[in-house]
Amino acid sequence: MMTTFETARLRLRPSVTGDRDDLFALEQDAEVMRFLNGGEPTPPDGVDPDADFLMPRGGEAGIWVAAEKDSGAFVGWFSLYDHDDGKAELGYRLRRAAWGQGYGSEGAKALVDAGFSQFGFVRIVANTMAVNQGSRRVMEKVGLVHVRTIHADWADPLPGSEAGEVEYAITREAWNRARGNHPTGTV
Fold first, then answer.
1. For residues 14 and 41, what is the distance between their CA atoms, to the nearest angstrom?
2. Under a CB-based contact definition with an 8 Å cutoff, are residues 58 and 77 in contact?
3. What are 80-131's pLDDT values in tens digits?
4. In what order do the strands lie in the sheet with 87-94?
5. Which residues have a Cβ under 8 Å from the Cβ of 39 and sit 6 or more positions away?
6. Which of 41, 53, 23 is nearest to 165 (CA)?
7. Model confidence over 78-92: pLDDT tens digits?
């Protein structure tokens, strides 16, 4: 599944252990981590028994490091986590300097497209806090639709968690329809 992708402005390549410093530095930015753990820095070893989110350190399957094609500057990472049941979970984390430039949508779209056209997934999902409007916009721009909002009782709730966690998803059939492909002859 690990292949390299190019978009109009990004190169996405499988992460390697040499990416560790960039990946770790990303998690030290309180704003980047705000909707994941309240902005707390993560441990250097990537092991946090209380974390239910991905903390890549380089070399993990399903993680692509994104860099600007022109400058080579590290932008962040994108993931497609294979659930081994035909479904994958889309994830991404970008440097704050890259926010608002469309990189999130550009990289996420490349992985969603590859997820269906190359990797054979039947459904792709993504989750975020309901109050994380930036991430929700990325999901919507790449074709995922809001499926549900989950309200959980957290032992140590983050600010905004009272609004819940949202799940977005897209199926291969919906992706094909959006692209004008109707392999079964139906719309």
1. 24
2. no
3. 999 999 999 999 999 999 999 999 999 999 999 999 999 999 999 999 989 9
4. 5-6, 10-14, 63-68, 74-82, 87-94, 123-129, 165-171, 145-150
5. 30, 31, 33
6. 53
7. 999 999 999 999 999
